[in-house]
From TrEMBL:
<dbReference type="Pfam" id="PF11875">
    <property type="entry name" value="DnaJ-like_C11_C"/>
</dbReference>
<dbReference type="GO" id="GO:0005739">
    <property type="term" value="C:mitochondrion"/>
</dbReference>
<feature type="transmembrane region" description="Helical">
    <location>
        <begin position="580"/>
        <end position="600"/>
    </location>
</feature>
<dbReference type="InterPro" id="IPR001623">
    <property type="entry name" value="DnaJ_domain"/>
</dbReference>
<dbReference type="InterPro" id="IPR052243">
    <property type="entry name" value="Mito_inner_membrane_organizer"/>
</dbReference>
<feature type="compositionally biased region" description="Polar residues">
    <location>
        <begin position="71"/>
        <end position="104"/>
    </location>
</feature>
<protein>
    <recommendedName>
        <fullName>J domain-containing protein</fullName>
    </recommendedName>
</protein>
<feature type="compositionally biased region" description="Low complexity">
    <location>
        <begin position="39"/>
        <end position="61"/>
    </location>
</feature>
<dbReference type="GO" id="GO:0016020">
    <property type="term" value="C:membrane"/>
</dbReference>
<keyword id="KW-1133">Transmembrane helix</keyword>
<dbReference type="Pfam" id="PF00226">
    <property type="entry name" value="DnaJ"/>
</dbReference>
<feature type="compositionally biased region" description="Low complexity">
    <location>
        <begin position="295"/>
        <end position="304"/>
    </location>
</feature>
<keyword id="KW-0812">Transmembrane</keyword>
<dbReference type="InterPro" id="IPR036869">
    <property type="entry name" value="J_dom_sf"/>
</dbReference>
<feature type="domain" description="J">
    <location>
        <begin position="146"/>
        <end position="214"/>
    </location>
</feature>
<keyword id="KW-0472">Membrane</keyword>
<dbReference type="InterPro" id="IPR055225">
    <property type="entry name" value="DNAJC11-like_beta-barrel"/>
</dbReference>
Length: 777
């Protein structure tokens, strides 16, 4: 799935009223409130300003950021949120495999379900993490998008845009506009809700509280929210409170972080019998020669003694059988690495980390105490300095500076000893396209060198890591949730190499990564790995590395639980063996695939059905209440939607033929290509469309989608419709969530300029109409 289609324009147009033409957004002036809401997009320099005029006004227009229209989906395919469109170049690079955080892709809408059930830890303890689950949450107390969705304005809309949206809805929902007692009562209820949304969002102080804490925060008494406090001061106080709470939660759950790595040599398990010594490795071997050629040999030594002592050979040179117990006894640990430490917050901008490190290899070992001081000087600059207190005393400094939303600069310097100059690694990254996450980066490594004699006379007995100078260039792109690729080319005096890796999610919750590297000095190497959440707090990763001509085959096992990591690199063979590669890649993959579809997926579906049944049973009254509220809203919007549809029909504008919201697989059949769009639209709106069945007549328990034709048509203004992203569409006026707790989609079939169009988007994705890519050919 792409991160978002390009701007939906085929040819340039000078018509300012042409909805197909590129948007020309107005720059909104600074408002007092915007300083109260931290921008998630240091990445975006555009401000959003929407203007929703009343139905009596014909001159109101909509202005949105340039990328607002590019977030729609193709005609019949799903479209999630526009992944990475607002990410900075440094964010994209840090998520790439080349950055060292391999596989740590962002998880939009909540993490995958653990293999053995339960909710992901992040979703359990962070209310704002599971965006998809918000739409099925019976409580809106902590939701921060509901009031914005009610007015259908972006969360960063200006005060003027909120006022215009409120006026447009007030014209339709005001009780004095309705004579029927039932409609008047429904209008009064809807009007009070819209009025309350406007009162909160038009008050800078209340809006700041709502943006941070949702409606639950409005019920609290905030001593800092006094008259005269600026939004910036309120923001700082709220941010401090939030940080204190997060720090307390983290301290209560995870007080330290540990990393333990054990390198295992298991080559004896898979080596041929002829290559396994019969005697223990510590016992000297007797040469396979007779006593005649051995001047120092004992005179009574038999002639076949050396033959019997040769590895893998028995008496008279026959190959012996090596038992499994003998193979297991030769499996051992060659290296142990242990790290354990904790982090403490010094100030709001500075944190300190202290850790102890231990290394043991072939009976020799050592340790050190390491301290790190990390400082965020500004949202664009951070630095980090690391010092080892014991010998060898190594000082490492690194940092990153974000030049703008599309470029960044990072550096790292390491000094191993005062007898030689420090090494430098410098990286520059640049986002190459505003419509995708494609980012290019260049890294220059100085390697070890001498400067005017400094570093030329390092004692030979001093342990110093020497590295060659190198230059590498690469490209990286994050395509979607957990999906992306990176390619890189490096040049150094000892090696010229090219590497490629790709990551994608498979089988519902497995994060699969594969890649290879080929170089003149490093040879050919390849890897593949799979990571899966087992429980709420435990993740398991399995990987296999193989290399030619040296490197062999290595199995990697990693377990991660609440910041505690255990890694087991197991050497299976010292040379490349295709049989081991197949045994530890194809066989486990086939076995897990069969397990997934045969056991795990059916069990997950049963558990999901039971959970959804319990959820809906516990909230049956709430579902009926919200459904009735949606019915009342549709009754109020029907006349206005009919007027808009007839007006759009007269000008060949945007007319909604059908709009359904709910579970995608239950949607009714869509119109096929070849239907007369204008005729179909006329049939739908020749008379006001019928409302969905009321609660007494409808089978609410088995309802799987909601007819939102009237509600969507009511949102159309001047042949355009835009619904901002990152909020559930069930919050829109006239919408109802028929499948609480399940993933939902919205499919809209509409006519524009006499042509049939269709679009389907996910619940939290942005919807922009009309777009040429929606047209059914």
């Amino acid at each position: 799935m792409s991160s978002g289609p390009p701007r939906a324009t085929v040819e340039d147009s000078e018509d300012p009223d042409d909805p197909y033409a590129p948007y020309q957004p107005r720059r909104s002036g600074p408002s007092g409130l915007r300083g109260a809401r931290p921008s998630a997009a240091a990445s975006s320099s555009n401000t959003s300003q929407t203007s929703s005029g009343s139905t009596a006004s014909s001159s109101s227009t909509h202005a949105y950021p340039n990328d607002a229209r590019s977030a729609g989906s193709s005609r019949t395919s799903d479209t999630g949120s526009s992944y990475g469109q607002n990410s900075t170049a440094s964010d994209i690079y840090e998520r790439s495999a080349s950055s060292g955080t391999q596989g740590s892709y962002p998880r939009e809408g909540g993490d995958e379900e653990p293999l053995f059930g339960g909710r992901p830890f992040r979703d359990t303890h962070d209310r704002s993490a599971a965006a998809e689950a918000t739409s099925g949450d019976p409580s809106r107390a902590t939701d921060k998008e509901y009031l914005y969705a009610l007015l259908n304005v972006p969360s960063d809309a200006s005060a003027e845009a909120i006022k215009d949206a409120y006026r447009a809805l007030a014209v339709v929902l005001h009780p004095d506009k309705h004579n029927d007692p039932a409609r008047k009562s429904a209008a009064e209820s809807r009007f009070r809700e819209v009025q309350r949304a406007y009162e909160i969002l038009s008050d800078p102080e209340k809006r700041t509280v709502y943006d941070y804490f949702g409606e639950e925060g409005l019920k609290s008494s905030w001593s800092v929210a006094v008259r005269g406090r600026s939004p910036h001061e309120m923001q700082a106080e709220f941010e401090r409170e939030r940080r204190r709470k997060q720090a307390a939660d983290a301290e209560a759950l995870v007080k330290s972080k540990g990393d333990f790595t054990a390198h295992i040599d298991a080559t004896a398990l898979f080596a041929p019998s002829s290559r396994i010594p019969r005697r223990p490795p510590s016992q000297p071997r007797v040469p396979a020669v007779g006593k005649a050629s051995q001047p120092g040999a004992a005179p009574d030594a038999p002639a076949d003694a050396g033959i019997a002592a040769m590895p893998g050979l028995g008496i008279a040179g026959f190959t012996r059988t090596v038992t499994l117990a003998e193979r297991i006894s030769r499996v051992g640990c060659t290296q142990l690495i242990g790290k354990h430490g904790f982090e403490t917050q010094v100030t709001n901008r500075t944190s300190a980390t202290f850790s102890g490190q231990m290394v043991s290899r072939n009976g020799l070992g050592g340790g050190n105490l390491v301290g790190t001081l990390k400082t965020h000087w500004s949202p664009r600059l951070f630095t980090e300095i690391t010092l080892s207190f014991l010998r060898p005393q190594i000082i490492t400094t690194k940092g990153q500076f974000t030049l703008d939303a599309n470029s960044f600069f990072s550096w790292q310097s390491t000094m191993q000893t005062l007898l030689m100059p420090p090494t430098f690694n410098i990286t520059y990254g640049q986002r190459l396209s505003s419509k995708s996450t494609l980012t290019g980066f260049t890294t220059v490594r100085s390697g070890t060198y001498s400067l005017l004699g400094w570093g030329a006379e390092v004692p030979g007995q001093m342990l110093v890591r020497r590295e060659p100078a190198a230059v590498s260039v690469g490209l990286t792109k994050q395509i979607g949730e957990g999906r992306g690729w990176t390619t890189q080319m490096g040049i150094s005096p000892v090696d010229q190499n090219i590497s490629v890796d790709y990551a994608l999610p498979v089988l519902g919750g497995v994060k699969l990564r594969s890649g290879f590297n080929i170089g003149t000095g490093s040879g050919l190497s390849a890897f593949t790995s799979a990571e899966r959440r087992l429980t709420e707090n435990v993740r398991l990763a399995l990987g296999l590395n193989c290399a030619l001509p040296v490197g062999g085959v290595t199995l990697r096992i990693k377990v991660n639980r609440l910041g505690q990591k255990i890694a087991l690199p197991i050497l299976l063979a010292r040379e490349f063996r295709s049989d081991l590669v197949v045994l530890f890649t194809v066989v486990p993959a086939a076995a897990y695939t069969a397990l997934h579809w045969g056991v795990l997926e059916p069990r997950k579906q049963r558990r999901l059905r039971n959970r959804l049944g319990e959820l809906r049973a516990a909230n049956s009254e709430l579902i009926l209440e919200r459904r009735q509220a949606a019915l009342d809203a549709l009754a109020l919007l029907r006349d206005q939607a009919s007027k808009k549809a007839r007006s759009e029909l007269a000008r060949s504008g945007l007319v909604v033929i059908s709009a359904v919201y709910g579970r995608r697989d239950a949607f009714p059949p869509a119109l096929e290509v070849g239907h007369d769009a204008a005729q179909a639209a006329s049939q739908v709106w020749s008379e006001p469309p019928a409302l969905p069945a009321d609660n007494e007549q409808a089978d609410v328990q088995n309802e799987s989608y909601w007819d939102a034709t009237i509600a969507v048509q009511a949102l159309v203004n001047h042949s355009q419709l835009i619904v901002p992203a990152a909020r559930s569409k069930s919050y829109l006026l006239g919408f109802h969530d028929p499948v609480m707790g399940e993933k939902k989609h919205l499919r809209v079939t509409y006519a524009f300029r006499g042509q049939l169009h269709q679009v389907q988007v996910q619940d939290l994705a942005e919807l922009a109409m009309p777009m040429r890519i929606h047209q059914l050919s």
